[in-house]
What does this fold into?
Amino acid sequence: MKKYNRIYVAGHDGMVGTAICRELKRRGYDDPITAHYTAVNLIDQTATREFIRREKPDCIIFAAARVGGIEANRSLIGTFLYENMMMAANVIHAAHEIDVPRLLFLGSTCIYPRLAPQPIPEDSLLTSALEPTNEGYALAKIAGLKLCEYYRRQFGHLYHSAMPTNLYGPGDNYHPSHSHVMPALIRRFEEARLAGAETVTLWGTGTPQREFLHVEDLANGLLFLLEHENPPDWVNVGSGQEVTIRRLAELVKEATGFQGGLVFDTDMPDGTPRKFCDTTRIRALGWSPSIALADGIRRTVGEYRQALADGTLRG
It folds into this structure.
């Protein structure tokens, strides 16, 4: 990887941002440029521009986002669109104005159509309707991706994007109603185990299929992309393995030691029926993940318990 001297990690204190910072340290980098949102509000264009002008990074990794699960995306759809769109536009445009030479924008595979071909290739973007339950977030990430693509085309900046699949691992958000499926399941099963509950009730039918990638694999993949002088405008980053929500629940149940049964509330939404990304493009560059799902879940349950005991659990 080219030795960038001043790397700014936007969103450094989130799950992805902290994983990137750990990976940079593992590779021998100095501490990256960071700023908590209370110090620099990336939704504020002037504050964002002034911060980037002052710090003069030579590389930006954009991992900032307002995120959540199905309920959060559905109930805060306007907030998710506005905040994520503004953060992306402000950072990318400020980088352009200040002539930051390299920027890697992080999105999500939720940018692809609800009924995209499976596995989902990058060129399925904007070919049909999005999943309604997370359309606001998806539109914001599409806007960021396209802004990078167009600024690269128009101005020659090396701005490019990575679209990870569903992520999990240390530093995740375990909010009872606004978390993603993996942390929601871990918290629910662990609380049920401690309470001696007979069953755990889950939303939907359990039949949708999902792909999960450990956040440490993602951080490794992102820095791998920064090694390339002419990367694609955007690439999917995934594990290459699918699992049904029912099977995922069974893996979490096993990892937590919960002894009760599973109940599926079919009156609640499933979300996208299948979301499995085609990782041919990034694998052709030479990258592949290393953490198996069952191993990653066991590690994450242990980290959840430790964070709960330490009082550092997010959510």
Observations:
- DSSP finds ten helices and twelve strands in the chain.
- The mean pLDDT is 94.
- The longest helix spans residues 77-98.
